[in-house]
Structures
1.
Amino acid sequence: MTKPSGPTLPRLSRRRFLAAGASLGVGVIAAPYVASADEPTLRITGWGGKWGDIMKAEVGPAFEKEFKCKLQTDTALPFLPKLQASSRSAPIYDVLHTNSNEQWAAVEMGLVEPKIDAKLVPHLADVYPYALSDKIVGVSIFTSAIGLGMRTDKGYSGVSSWKELWDAKYNGVRGGYVIPVNSLGQAFLMMCGTLFGKGQTDLDAAYAALEKLKPIKLVDFTGAMEKMFLSGEVGLGVIHDSGIYRYDGQNQPIDFVTPSEGVLSLEQVLTITPGSKLKELANAYVNYMLSAPVQKKLAETVWYSPANKMVKLDDKYDAKLLTTPEKVSKLVQVDWKWYNAHKDDIDSRVNRIFRA
Amino acid sequence: MSLAPAIRMNGLAFFILPSALLFALFFFLPIGLMAVMSLLTGNPVVAPNVAFTTRHYARIADDPYYFEVIWTTIRIGLWTTLAALAIGYPLAHWMARIKSRAGHALLLMAVLAPMLTGIVVRTFAWMALLSDKGVINQTLQSLGLVSQPLKLMYNETGIVIGLVHIYVPFMVLTLTGVIGRIDERLEQAAENLGASPLRTFLEVTLPLSLPGILAGSLLVFALAISAYVTPILLGGFQIMTLPILIYQQISANFNIGFAAALGMVLLLVSFVLVVAYNHVLGRVSGQRDLQ
């Protein structure tokens, strides 16, 4: 019996098999990157929740389509230590979106550029003065008003001043933020200096006031404070307006109080990193976020007050958010540069004040 | 002389190599870097003009607040360990001595079941129970047993309750193996010689299970002093422990050097504990090489 003749396949050695397998693996992994190699990727930071949802579903894709790029958003806090650990010449982000206190820390460390170039971001001409004031690094694209949140089903009506938070009847249901880690807590500390002392930087007056604020329930972010209000753990506490207004129409017994002494400004700030290789695109992103349609869309989704004064919100939002020069004038901005210079001492003191 | 036998790899070495690499890359290297960072004024990779300094350690030494934080961390660890031992030992003894295979399986499932849920979820569940408006306080108030909510949360009690729930399985599983290996005939002999069950337990079972108690305690203590999520949530940010302080320094103060120094202190506490544990274990078990 003879062996049938015909074309013979090359012998598949172990080496060939491994090489083919490795090539296939690399190809599969690299395929999406090769496919999008011609599209630049702008790396930004951003929030999760409703902000993240609308950015992912509408605002982000529209920017990608218009500028033929990819947006890569990091929503995992904390952002600054990651930027701090990355190379200055090849930073992990092109655009840093965070609150003003962290932006000031970032600019002190040389991690972000102090100002946005108005020639490259035309919409800077449309923003309220607070968004570009000397208390701001980069540009504030939105702001919230930090004031008091209140349960409306506990007979607490008539609250109109920050000082009512010190009323003994709120013992056990008083809420605030962890000062060392949260912008609202830090801003509130400065407000304590204004309320009971000579001004924002009167730390002794602020510390004395904080001592008298105990017992108080502390949280580290607004999502947790919202839950404290909704569950009734907190009846009166510090919160920003968006944290209350986002439950509008859901029949929740909570309301936002604008204290007569003014509301503190919680700015959403954008800056560009000095080492970014996509400066033009980064500036385009800042300009895009300040454009009227994007401002309106985001403001009406997450209840942030738009920085662009040309934006016209629907009546429901216009009635509550800071959309006129008169309303905006109630905002109290914090001197974060001063605060950050004293942060270690402040943290050390407030950690002692609030220890159980 | 041929070098071949000298360079010939033992087959076992191939199995040890991955874990050795893992330890080198993800344990010794990060700890070495942390030790270096704790002695620098900044990050030399990204910042110019970085110099050696002892200021981070001086800051810890100069401020009694940090000693309070260290003591709070150790105190929570000790209470958690004691409570986990008190709850875990009887359960482990039962598991080790139960004759029914099905009974053992059921007990094992009961011990392991909580571990199938994440720590965050379990901690939130405790918050739902222990908070001022939680199930326990609402029930007590509705029954008229208390007029004001009991302080079950926002203090060390709440943290210890949460940690014990999480770490009891570690204690039980460690103890079960050790108690299971104790020869029951020794206990029977003691009872035949007239010892009461309590005396048999105290003079036979307990001393022989000491290595398990020490190992379980070491494990639970180490986990408790390095816990972050449970202390921060059940302590309501009003109980400061070393892990919370370290995270605060990195995430909000961006002071990596000081955070590294605090990390080294936490490591030192753990190291002292391991050395003491080995010393005690060596003495009670007669294994001198452990000392």
2.
Amino acid sequence: MFTRIGPETGANLTVHVDGKPVSVRAGDSAATAAMLAGLLPSRLTPVSGAPRAPYCMMGVCFECLMTIDGVGSRQACLEPVREGMRIEVQSGRRTLTP
Amino acid sequence: MSAAFDLVILGAGPAGMSAAIAARRHGLSTVVLDDQPEPGGQIYRAVERRARSADAASLGPDYAAGAALVEIFRRCGADYRPVTQVWQIGRDLTVLASHAGASSAFAARAIVIAVGAAERPVPIPGWTLPGVMTVGAGQILLKASAVVPPQPLWIAGQGPLPLLYAAQLIDAGMPPAGILDTTPQGALARSWRHLPGALANWRYLPKGLSYLAAIRRAGVPLVRHVTEVAALGDGRVTSVRYAVGGRLHEAAAATLLLHEGVVPHVHMSLSAGVRHSWDDTLQAPVPVLDAWGETSLPGLFVAGDAGGIGGAAIAAIRGERTALRVAHRAGRIDYAQLQERDKTAGLQMRRHEQIRPFLNAVFTPRKAIHVPGDDVIICRCEELTARDIRQAVAAGCVGPNQVKAKTRCGMGPCQGRQCALTLQQIVADARGVAVAELEQLTIRPPLRPLTLGELASLDHHHGSANLT
């Protein structure tokens, strides 16, 4: 379990991680929200389907690619959470949405 | 949307913020593009929010000091654009960046790349398993969200950051299961000759010793001279294996955090096609800069750790000096003013730099990390191993770009940010040549994944007069 230890540093928000409502705080990233929700792996690779999860948390490694609000291949560690944001596991390559 | 500025700064860490403050003081129109949501860079990550909260003390006085710099930056009058991803730096000094699904062009008289450092890749067996992260990632979770990864949590690596993070976890009442120190035997003994310099800058050494004391008091195991660290597990990490003096040990782990030092983040400067050289001490490429931080492309500067590792205090000074140079070139200050300010900055920089030879001697990059065994994944995106790279070299690939063309190493979403350094080292080792002799991986735009919508939203015209 990823554990929150500190006092309030931001307003409470609700996001949806793979369809489940999760309470997070303003200032969290989508990647942090996914980890707090216990969503590991956060993606399956397009090459072999291997399970992966956020690695660097600073935009360098691209391991945290997820589908956010329906758009694939978003770097979840660089996306601040917004009320109602939908965060989903990305399986393989991103798909194009019309 | 298009706009023209005297100075476009990439990154809002100590170097970028200081450059912006100095540029604004001399009346330069300045925009700061940063991919993070808040100013401060990684070193002062989320410092505005955390400084106001009751637990800020657990992150230490250095971190809290960053709040003052952020406050001045906020009021300096620079156009600050957070959550903005730069995806191209043109040789005509135009920066293309994306924010909220739309792209903009920023024409500049000068550009400062101030994107800081990145953690050295740590290719060990199992490093792609969920549950394995960098120590920097752990610290970002702590600073930005007060979140601690699952226990049992092991830290493996070397350098000041693992000790600092362990001390912070202990302070927060969530001590790690243990620390595997990979600093090689004898490294400390070899570095004693640099101790006078380290002592001359009294602030740094006691900090390191205080972390060690906290770790000892908390009874956290600190295992020295560890080699052969590996993450084991099926689908996620469940244990860590390591060797001490040739004997293998294994311990249960839900989290393994790795750190083998930091290197300049050169992806953006490489993409601009400017000259880089190989730094033997860092075992990493660095942009070739003049005394003011200017690259081989006139008007393109690099400040802070992106140009060479110096830490936050030096990064801030370098950022300021670069902005002064730009102000001088724009006719905002005369040469005497530039020189006078530079004398003070030079003295400050030398004081902070005195710790570096000691740190570099203790925490020398390890060959096992640069040139790992055949089965270890090097390119995480394309899932290529050291063996794949060695086979490509055996088939006639002489440099990183040939290996890339043959194997796709460096062609995945990260575009070589994680693998380039190891790729260079393995190719040089396999060919028996010095890394310095190899060219750098060619980096091409876009530097981030882009949607067609983001691309199409761009309405600028290169080189024409309708930039507003």
